[in-house]
Design brief:
Elements (H helix, E strand, L loop, with lengths): L1 E7 L12 H10 L3 E6 L4 E6 L3 H16 L5 E5 H9 L13 E6 L5 H9 L6 E5 L2 E5 L8 H10 L3 E5 H12 L2
Antiparallel strand pairs: 1-3, 1-4, 2-3, 5-7, 5-8, 6-7
Helix pairs in contact: 3-6, 4-5
């Protein structure tokens, strides 16, 4: 069995695309996943499966329209990839304020032109590093006002989802407890 971190995009935001975590956990267990745990209401899951990450994602994606009446994009990393992402954090200073660092999980690689445009939008205090389809976004003045954060989707043009470093670490702890 492989332990996976599953991130759902755009659920339970502003009262839209409402997903009860208890219902989601139940549906995933019925679909054959084990050790299903959720963290907060924004689509963070830890589970185990003997399926490939691709198959896990396809299965979860297919459950959304029939169960919840809408689609949600699924991003998946196995526990080894997740641990590697944490170990390669280029901003250890964010440990004092874990909400200043976000792991932006990319499902594809952005083009060099997109990355150059993205870099040009950086404010004075913010920066980013791209490693292994993870964009580490450091925003010490706040994610909500970051010029980089505001342009993620529009400029990078790849499927992505972001989690603050506190959530990243919590999901690692949950996975380690399985």
């Amino acid at each position: 069995m492989t332990t996976y971190i599953v991130l759902l995009r755009g659920i339970n935001v502003g009262g839209n695309k409402v997903v009860k975590m208890e219902t989601l956990r139940t549906v995933l267990i019925k679909a054959g996943f084990a050790d299903v745990k959720s963290y907060i209401q924004s689509g963070n899951l830890v589970l185990t499966s003997n399926q490939t990450a691709r198959r896990v994602g396809e299965t979860i994606s297919s459950l959304f329209p029939t169960t919840f009446g809408f689609e949600s994009r699924v991003s998946i990393r196995n526990i080894d990839e997740w641990n590697c992402m944490i170990a390669k954090n280029p901003y250890p200073e964010a440990g004092a304020n874990p909400k200043s660092l976000h792991a932006v999980i990319l499902d594809d690689d952005p083009t060099d032109a997109a990355l150059a445009e993205f870099e040009a939008k950086a404010g004075d205090t913010e920066s980013f590093t791209l490693r292994n389809r993870v964009l580490y976004l450091y925003t010490p003045d706040g994610f909500g006002t970051s010029k980089l954060a505001l342009s993620l989707d529009r400029v990078l043009k790849v499927p992505l989802t972001a989690r603050n470093w506190r959530t990243v670490q919590t999901l690692q702890e949950m996975a380690a407890a399985i």
